[in-house]
Every structure is written in C-alpha cells, then in structure tokens.
From TrEMBL:
Organism in which the protein naturally occurs: Eragrostis curvula
Ranges where the DUF7595 domain occurs: 115-394
Lineage: superkingdom: Eukaryota
Organism placement in taxonomy: Eukaryota, Viridiplantae, Streptophyta, Embryophyta, Tracheophyta
Biased composition range(s): Basic residues: 1-11
Stretches for region Disordered: 1-27
Cited InterPro entries: DUF7595, F-box-like_dom_sf
Low complexity bias spans: 12-27
Pfam family, one: DUF7595
Protein name: DUF7595 domain-containing protein
Length: 438
C-alpha cells in the first residue's frame, strides 16, 4: 500500500520584502563639466578614450579652456608636443630634449607599442617618404607597373596614433623628368603633407607632389595634389598638373641641383631650401628658398641672409636648414665650425633678423662623443615646430644631437639618439582641437 501524502499545514514561504529599486529616471548623472575635471587628471590616452565614449564629455574636452589646462599648465597631463623618430620597424624613440613625464609615458606605453604592432604589414612593403603633423607618407618599396591593383596603392598616408590609412597611386605626371640623373645624384622631387589643423585646407589632409627640376625651360615647380576627399570620392585621382610661371635661377638647370625637405607655414605656403650642385655649370655654391602657395597656385623665392651667400671654397664650413619657429615664422639656421647661427624672417617682406648665435665648442669638449670633430653640421629634418634642432658631429652619419635653440643654457637640454627612419612630431593641442564634435 503506497504511503500517504503529507498535507501542507502552513502557508508557503514568501520572499522577504525588499526595498524597491529606484527608477532609472531618478538616477543622478554626473555633470559633464565635473567629469571633465576628473578626466583632466588622467593621461592623454584616457582623455581620447573618454572623448570617443561620451558625447557631452567630448564637447567639454574640445573646449579651448580644457585643452589649455591639460596641455599648457605646469602640471599638464598631456604633452604639448612630442618629437622623435619612427624607424623601419615603426618603433618610436623620443628625441626632444627636456621631455616631460607625460610625453615619456605616452611614447613608451601607448604610441610605441601600438604603432609597431599595427603597422607590421606596412613596413614590409613600404618605405618612408616624409612626415608632418602626426601623419606619415609611405611609398611602396618595389613598384610592379604591370599590376594595376598594386599601382592603386603606390603611396599611403598613415596615422601611427590611430592606424588610419589612405592608399592611392603615385602622381602620373610628376617625377618623370628625362634629364634626371644624367650628371649625378638628383633630389628634386618632394612630397609634402598639409593638414586642416595646421594649414586651414578644406579636408583632413592633402599630399602635394612637387618637381623642382626646371630642365631647360627654366620654370619650377611643377605640382600635383591629392586630398583625403579625392581618395574616397574620385577613387584616388590626382589633380591636373600645375606649372608655375616662376623663373628659377639659371643654376636650377644643373643636373645635380637638389632641395631640402619642405617647410610649411600657416596658410599653406610651402618653402624648399634649394641648393646648386658643384658641377662645371656653376663655380659658386648658390642657395635660395623656393616658395609655393597652395591656395593661389603661385611660386616665388626668398634670398638667404647676406652673410650666408658664400662661395664654393667655403662650402665645407657649414650646412643650411630652413625650419618653422614655434610662433610659425620662417627660420634659417647655419653652422660655421661649432657656431650655430639662427635668423628669423620678419612678416610681409621685413627681411631677416639674427635671432641667436650659440657656440657649441665648449659643450663638445666636455662630451665623450667625437672629441676629435672640428665642427657640427645641421641635419635637415624638415618642418618641426617643437623648437628642436638636430646636429651631426663631424662626418658621423648615424648619431645626432638635439637641442633647443630657444634655451639659454643648451648644455642641459641636449640628448643623443640614433638616427633612424623619419622624424615624427605630434602637436597634441592641435590634435585635440581638430577632433570633430558630435
């Protein structure tokens, strides 16, 4: 006989009453300005992540007051500028003297590992062409002219901080002068990067290709451009070639003439320091600055300071460099032995004014590096606005020294690094200000 079922003699247990959860509408959100006060005490990587994650916070981060606090004040957590070198393996090394702790932290723990990890596929196929404003232009190492699919990616504009990439073909009408290379090495072809933040152009970036070889017609430069909007809208189509009406000096027809890396000032005016080669066409060493206005498509020239218009027999006494100063003015530097001289060009044709003259001999005599050297030489690193100047000691091509021309005691701001790859400079204040508000 089956056992009898037990009957429940008490009511079933009920769940213990708990306090009701608050409505979502009653949750108090932190104000965006209070969040911004918290975020500004972190670091540059956290600030960028927060700007990408929260719309109200992003609007606070993009205000000029926030950018000034995090970039310019004494306890700033965002370095105003970082400058270093990207080598062939996309490894970043700082080169700017007096680098802040914020810059060291960002370069070591964020930029360097991110760039080397993400760009592994690029460094196998591309080599450096130029860099400016946080962007790097890369050119394919080996161009296969029979494969159209590869020709569409001859060039790449790369952002090491975000891994953003834009591919397009090489300019079809630039860099194919039949006179190139007939009488020695020629460096008359130049790529220049322009950006919306630095140059006020109507797109995120523009790549300018210029050929300064005038041939025998005596006119240069010839220019083609490709903008970020052209990459997406026109499928990577270069602009029609622009031939300027500027009459170059007669020695520009020399087959061994060359130019230094470009310098771009505000408003999109590009400057190249041009050099005459030591061929039999010219007995004097001649230099001048060639300019091109991207907005008006016109070219011009600027003479160097009178003290630097020297003859061929004194060519070895120094080297020349054009660069942009911290306030955006054109700067010209020259060396004579261990003396570095700096001139700044006054606006609206005001002429050159000597800005500084630094004797480096006492510093080198106390240094263990190349004590037998008889002088220093400027190494052209193009358009850097951090105030750093790069020097090469004697004939050593591998080791450079960087120092700040604005410092009163350069001995305390010198740092050594191995030359490798291309310079890479980021202006974080401009970078934050150029972020889109949404």
């Amino acid at each position: 006989m089956p056992p009898r079922k037990r009957h429940r003699t008490s009511a079933p247990r009920r769940a213990t009453a708990t306090s009701s959860s608050p409505d979502a509408s009653s949750t108090q959100a932190l104000p965006a300005n209070l969040l911004a006060k918290i975020v500004e005490r972190t670091d540059v990587a956290t600030i960028v992540r927060c700007a990408a994650a929260c719309k109200p916070l992003r609007r606070e981060i993009l205000t000029p007051e926030f950018i000034r606090r995090v970039c310019q004040e004494s306890d700033a957590v965002v370095p105003s500028t970082i400058l270093g070198c990207l080598d062939d393996e996309m490894t970043f090394s700082l080169a700017l003297p007096g680098t802040s702790a914020a810059a060291l932290s960002f370069a070591r723990y964020h930029l360097a590992p991110f760039a080397s990890r993400r760009a592994a596929d690029l460094i196998e196929k591309y080599t450096f062409a130029t860099s400016r404003c946080g962007l790097v232009a890369l050119a394919r190492r080996e161009v296969n002219r029979r494969r159209k699919s590869e020709r569409r990616s001859d060039l790449c504009v790369y952002d090491p901080m975000t891994d953003a990439r834009a591919f397009f073909p090489a300019p079809p009408d630039i860099g194919h002068n039949p006179y190139h290379g007939l009488m020695g090495s020629v460096t008359v072809f130049s790529y220049v990067i322009l950006t919306a933040a630095a140059d006020g152009i109507g797109c995120s970036f523009m790549l300018l290709a210029a050929d300064m070889a005038s041939g025998f017609e005596g006119r240069c430069p010839r220019v083609q451009t490709m903008s970020s909007s052209d990459v997406t809208a026109a499928g990577g189509k270069w602009s029609p070639i622009v031939t300027t009406d500027h009459n170059c000096p007669w020695w520009c027809a020399n087959m061994d003439s060359y130019c230094d890396a470009a310098v771009v000032l505000g408003g999109g005016v590009v400057h190249w320091l041009m050099h005459a080669g030591a061929s039999f066409f010219a007995q004097d060493v001649r230099e001048y600055i060639l300019t091109y206005d991207i907005n008006s498509s016109t070219a011009g020239s600027i003479d160097l300071p009178q003290e630097r218009q020297v003859a061929a027999n004194t060519r070895g006494s120094g080297s020349l460099l054009a660069g942009s100063s911290r306030d955006g003015k054109l700067r010209f530097l020259a060396t004579n032995g261990f003396v570095v001289s700096v001139w700044v060009l006054a606006p609206e044709g005001g002429g050159w004014a000597r800005h500084a003259q630094v004797d480096m001999e006492a510093i080198w005599s106390l240094s263990e590096f190349h004590p037998e050297a008889r002088g220093v030489y400027l190494e052209n690193f193009g358009d850097q606005r951090s105030g750093a100047v790069f020097l090469r000691v004697g004939d050593d091509p591998d080791t450079l020294c960087s120092f700040d021309v604005e410092a009163e005691e350069p001995r305390h701001v010198m740092s050594w690094f191995e030359k490798s790859g291309v310079p890479y400079e980021v202006d974080f204040a401009s970078r934050l200000a150029s972020m889109k508000a949404f």
